[in-house]
C-alpha cells in the first residue's frame, strides 16, 4: 500500500495526449458488449477462459500477502455497500455473487439485510469472508457463468467486480432476474471500457515499435451503453447506470502489472498473448512514463497513473406498483425552455397561490 497513492475523480478526464494514440482508439474501445450483441440464441461467444480465471483467483486467494492487493476492491466494495444503504428497505434474503474476500459483505449493515448468501467459485475465499454480527450467512460455491437460485427467492443481488469476466452476460442477467422477487433489486459494479487505457496504449505502442504488430494483453471490458442494453433486454426496469473513476499512482509499469496479478485481474481472454517480450516491457514502461508520468514538485519522485473506470448498475424486477413513465407528449414544459426554468417555477407557484386564495 505504501507504493500507491489513490486519487479519486468524479468525471472522466481527457484520454488522448498525443495524436498517435488516435490510431489505437478502435482497439482501446473493443468491448465485451460488442461481441455479446453478435451472439444468437444457439451460440455463445466465449471471450474468457473460465478455467484460467479460476486458477488466477485461487492463486491470489491463497497468497500469504493477499491483503496487500485489496485496496482497490475494498474501496469499490465499500461504495457498493453504501448504495445498498441508500435503498430505504430491509432485505430479507440477499446474494453476493462473486463475493471474493468479502469486499462488499463486510460493509453491509444488519439494518439492511437479514440473511446473506455468499457465492464464489473459490472455497478458500468463502472460508475467509467476514460479515457483521446480526446477519445470517449461507455460503455457496457458484460460478458466475452458471447462476442458479430458486425462482422468485431473492430480494437483492449484489455483485462487485465479478460479472465482467462472464462470457454469457445476457443469460447471467436473465438468471438473476429470474431469481429475484417482484420489485427485487440488482446492484452491481464492473470495470468499464476506459479501464487501464494508459497501460493498453503504452503496450500497443511498444509492440508496434518493437514487434511490428499488436497482440491483446489486456482483457476487453464492456461499455456503459452495452450494460444498459443488456439489462433492458433481460427485463429489468427503472435502470440507474453511472460511472466512477479511480486513479491509482504507481512508481512504474511493473508495480502496476504485479498488483493486477495480485488482484486476480490478469488477462483471461482466450485469444490473449501468453508472452510479453522483455524488451517490449521496458519499451512500454518508458512510453508509459513519457506519455502519462507525473513528477511531484516537492519530492521530485515520478509516478504513473492507472485509471480504473467503474460502471455501477441498478435495476429492478418489474412490479405492478412501480412508478411508470408518463406517456409521450404529456409534458407541460418543452426542453427548449429549460434556460428559463426559474421563471416557469415562479409562474407555477403564483398560479397555485392564487388558486389557494380563491378556495
TrEMBL record:
Pfam families: Methyltransf_23. GO terms for cellular component: mitochondrion. CDD domains: AdoMet_MTases. Keywords: Methyltransferase, Transferase. InterPro entries: Malonyl-ACP_OMT, SAM-dependent_MTases_sf. One of its GO terms (molecular function) is methyltransferase activity. One of its GO terms (biological process) is mitochondrial respiratory chain complex I assembly. This is NADH dehydrogenase [ubiquinone] 1 alpha subcomplex assembly factor 5-like Protein. The lineage of its organism: Eukaryota, Metazoa, Ecdysozoa, Arthropoda, Hexapoda.
